[in-house]
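Hi,

Apologies if this is the wrong queue. I'm a grad student, and the batch job for Phytoene desaturase from Halorarum halophilum produced an output file that my downstream script rejects. I'm not sure whether the problem is my script or the file. Here is the sequence I used:
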Amino acid sequence: MRQPRDLSALAGDDVTVVGGGFGGLSTACYLADAGADVTLLEKNEQLGGRASVLEADGFRFDMGPSWYLMPDVFETFFDHFDRTPEEYYTLSRLDPHYRVFFKDGDRVDMVPDREANRETFESYEAGAGEVFEAYLEKSKRDYEVGMEHFVYEHRERLRDFVDLDVLRNARGLSLLGTMQGHVEDYFESPKLQQLMQYSLVFLGGSPHNTPALYNLMSHVDFTLGVYYPDGGIGAVVDGIADLGRELGVEYVTDAPVEAIEGRRGGFAVDLEDGRRFLADRVVSDADYAYTEQELLPPGKRQYDAEYWESRTYAPSAYLLYLGVEGDLDPLAHHTLVLPTDWDDHFAAIFDDPAWPDDPAYYLCVPSETDDSVAPEGHSALFALVPIAPGLDDSQEHRDRYREHVLDDVAENTGVDLRDRIVLEETFCIEEFADRYNSRNGTALGMAHTLRQTAPFRPSHRSSAVDGLYFTGSYTTPGIGVPMCLISGLLTAEVIARE
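Support response: The file is valid. Your script probably expects a header line. Output copied below for reference.
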């Protein structure tokens, strides 16, 4: 993967970055390394944005991202600064990568051994082992070409795609159609289709609205592997923050921003407590819609309220963080519980918003891998149920759904948690909105639908305020920790070009 273009034009600039998620942390590192004086302001008490950490009574939970995927992206990021990820955190490859409990009583593990996975696919459908290999070859090509020529390239206008290099490399890519149509061309078994599509949750979409190009996630899953950084994703946040300090980034936490005023060469970023930070340029990693609608005056907004109302947002989530006595066998570090037909759940997110009656959900048990995240004799677990953003998440709804989820876990995995819970915390739509200023309480931002991918996502640069830029999941390349790291690179390049 390519290295950044010349960023030396940034030397000497005073830049304020608003928001300390992965996009903001990445942008700050690139800018500081190029010689800019960078101050990063984070609303909450810790860095990481949605990758916050919950610590209580000896338990430690990643509150948001918990899968370490696309290790090559992290290696490329650190390599730019002549460093390696291993200098900041330790990785272990998970085995199994994840376990799936289907609600008809079936159970399957996806493992680092590709041949074993091929045999698993063959056991579900005659000939599916060979098709599995063909699917992964297609996924590998889409990944390699897509990453080099689209993800790592700043192409935010339609005309940027109309050149010979793009057209030549796009030949054969799955640029049209949906993931559902794509996997149906390979597999008849609904279960195999689900195994090839579960990662869409990380992109905030459904099989019916996510572009087929994202079949590249299967290369990420089955070939590049699933890892765990000791201490969780929070350890990755700490590592990148440490790198930023080495490069000269100043971090200010507990610093909610109230307003952004001015233009290039004369910005003032005002905090709610009255402090003011002056800058030549400003980069926002805060929620894009919140930045535009709440932090900027009306005449300085690129998009009006109607634009933001018309967007398709990624799911929110009902999250249940549990400290539990004893072990949680047979749950794996990453466990998925899936109905054999998950269309109703996706419909309850994107078509007819409601709390899903038969949910597909994720269980994370980091204590299966890391003894440090729970006291001796205990386990740490969180349950994540994707739900529609903007739902009513009153205490009554949460209480009812807690019982529903605990019943479902017991019925479909055999693990009854009720009498063993010693710590319990919930996080849902209201907290996403309050803690992260998240539009409608979305957990991820704008979904990767056919009309919200690549040049159809909001721009890295403001067209209304000279010197204001954006980074993070709303911009290209999009949702997910690796994509936000790359977003930081693209934002830095846009600033350097200007």
